[in-house]
């Protein structure tokens, strides 16, 4: 039985604000990639309905190498839950769930990824990559963020 990767992070914004950031290509491309990578706006495809495509390229800034991400939207419960599937992720299938839970004007983001190779689950570099994208989100929105 494989384990899931679970990351939690606080953001000083409401679930509605975060939902908008995750579902608007002009905002999404600015924060979703970790530090050292970028997402060209013209690579983002969001068919924001269950069964719709969700695609983007992550570009490594040092090498220019492109990592395509191609998935489908499996669940949407605005503004609290998004579930995406990538059927061709590293030879397997990835399922990524983002939840946004309000608490006193802040929101707890919980990301759960199922189907990752075991060596990525507790990898400090993978965890830091997620954290750096949350910090970028805070900068894009002009709000504080905090690891949890």
Automatic annotation (TrEMBL):
Residues 12-141 form the Activator of Hsp90 ATPase homologue 1/2-like C-terminal domain. Gene3D superfamilies: 3.30.530.20. It holds the Pfam family AHSA1. This is Unannotated protein. Coiled coil: none annotated. SUPFAM superfamilies: Bet v1-like. Belongs to the AHA1 family.
